[in-house]
Amino acid sequence: MTLPRKTEPPAAAGRTKMEDIARIAGVSVSTVSRALAGSSKVTGETRARIEAAVRQTGYVVNQVAQGLRLQRSRQILVLLPTIANPFFGEIILGVEEAAQAAGYSVLVGSTEGDLEREAALARQLHTGGVDGLILLTGRIPDGLADHAARGQVIAVSETIPGQHLPTVVIDNEEAAAAATTYLRRLGHHNIAHIAGPEGNVLTAQRVRGWRRIVGDAAGPPVFGAFTMDSGAAAMTRLLARPNRPTAVFCANDEMAIGALKAAHLAGLRVPEDLSIFGFDDITFAAFTDPPLTTIRQPRREFGHAAIAALLAGTPPPRLAFTLVERASTAAPR
Amino acid sequence: MTLPRKTEPPAAAGRTKMEDIARIAGVSVSTVSRALAGSSKVTGETRARIEAAVRQTGYVVNQVAQGLRLQRSRQILVLLPTIANPFFGEIILGVEEAAQAAGYSVLVGSTEGDLEREAALARQLHTGGVDGLILLTGRIPDGLADHAARGQVIAVSETIPGQHLPTVVIDNEEAAAAATTYLRRLGHHNIAHIAGPEGNVLTAQRVRGWRRIVGDAAGPPVFGAFTMDSGAAAMTRLLARPNRPTAVFCANDEMAIGALKAAHLAGLRVPEDLSIFGFDDITFAAFTDPPLTTIRQPRREFGHAAIAALLAGTPPPRLAFTLVERASTAAPR
DNA sequence: TGGCGACATACAATCGATTGCACGCACACG
DNA sequence: CGTGTGCGTGCAATCGATTGTATGTCGCCA
């Protein structure tokens, strides 16, 4: 006969577990589990004893064990290009709020454009690490087909080409058209566009909206990289054009801020000599000099809608943008 | 005799597990586990068969099960006041980089100043959800004493009063003194200070550094809330003082940006009429008009150092700040 | 007083991995 | 030819929870 051997677990954590509660309350773990789950089968005095034991010890269930048994982790992973960008920050804030309210927590993966890293993070879906994936990257890592089909993946802010993924977005083309129309109504006839990087879906959509209003006679857009530096560089190129624009629609606020700086350096006054229009309405947009006229994307609501759609399994509604009028735009002289 | 009953697990996930690999390779799960762990006990042809099976199926270990058995989750939780703030964003970026390199992933909890929420998130340490906790909140939730003692908790950017917690910071008092000294050397004699909220540790440290240089004759600092709005309000109050300062040292860049705006609105030119000095060197500081002179905190390195200290269990080194000279400061006229 | 039903509680299997120990097999040596 | 040495592999316990089924208890009625 062999003695029962034990495979020693690593460094006993010593945390209170359900078994301890059971012992203190004088019941079995099953009963404790049911009591905590709110089952109506555990009542009266027994339930009271269990609750007392829980309070006394400060017990909280072990989420890892629970996750293993229930095959869900109550965690959502957000994948984004870079977290050091206030635009994403506020989306995450919304995600956090909604997730927390639903009893989920949020993992953040900043991929820095590295496909390898993206894939590694997305693998968490396989490994049981997370229940859902929110993509702010504008692309989807390989091997996520089944998960996507099961409604565990959702895109936010940017549609992903060639995928029928539920997506939380505004109508970017309409928003760009609205911005351009606004400038036109002010009396501008030469409206340039500082676009995002070529090949990007958002870039294409916003270029399309702008083009619809300015027509083919207008020159090509100048492409940037959604950064302040690239906005400044783009503006410098625009100012060198033979017929200088009187207004510039920028594909995001950061590039608009860069453009503003370049305009100032060139000795132009905004909005007297040049109108500048942004996109996103990040917090800083209200504090530039002059404050930026821009399109506001409801970023917190993006986050809320993403979680709601993910947890309910229903397709998210398309959200509305707002035109925020500030002082960086005016009629041309 | 009773038949073995099964307690049905929820919706069989159908993912490949170690057992599948074992079957395909014709060995037991223990051998697979050892092979994957890199044990030298599994060699030659057996190992080759296992590796082939893994490649063929695209198997990845289930982190939840592994976490349960090993009593560790390979996850680090970062607690911060609000994620919609570029200052924290870059710290998280650093945390992410270092964590990922060490095979850890990062959970982000934005507490919005809610103590309840902070405690709920911190509870993850008990529940096995995370292995370590990084606090950017400037305070520590209750009931973390043992964890702190075990080196699972570290503070970043802000020391936590009354706790001997390993902390990643610059010398804030020295930095404030350096900023004020810089202004004094430019020839300013009336240097005001827009401070953070009263009661905050950082506020106190920076006020102390400023005070050390300006002496007791200078008036009291004006308190703000680290936001652009509060910076603007504080500046407005300063401008109403009988002897208007010729330079203002702000406790962070956001308040400096607000101050800049208020100064402009009041018709003052910066730096000709008024010098403004910031703190942190957030990305936007280089793009204000004029660009902000400021103290740079090495935020990415904060993140790296925090992870290094957490994983190695060694106290982090104190990091160095840099004075970044830009155009918002000049000699008084 | 015996039997039946309703209700509360306990037992044990299960999630997917890790690991101490036992065991099998091959080879060598006495 | 029997036993010792050593290496590689398998068995089964374990992490902490959930849950289908069995069991126990009590009351009520005939």
Query: What is the name of the CATH architecture of the largest domain in chain A?
Result: 3-Layer(aba) Sandwich
Helical content band of chain A: 40-55%
The CATH homologous superfamily of the largest domain in chain A: Response regulator
Mean pLDDT of chain A: 92
Strand percentage of chain A lies at: 5-15%
- Main sheet: strand order of chain A: 2-1-3-4-5
Query: Could you please say which CATH topology of the largest domain in chain A applies here?
Result: Rossmann fold
Assign an overall shape of chain A: elongated
Radius of gyration of chain A: 27 Å
* Number of helices, where a helix is a run of at least 4 consecutive DSSP H or I residues of chain A: 12
Task: Give a short account of the largest sheet of chain A.
Answer: 5 strands, parallel
The SSE string of chain A, one letter per element, is HHHHEHEHEHEEHEHEHEHEEHE
Stretches of chain A where pLDDT is under 50 for at least 5 consecutive residues are: none
CATH top level label of the largest domain in chain A: Alpha Beta
- Count of DSSP strands of chain A: 11
State the secondary-structure class of chain A.
alpha/beta
Largest interface: A-B, 59 and 59 residues
What oligomeric state do the depicted chains represent? Answer: homodimer
| Count of separate structural domains of chain A | 3
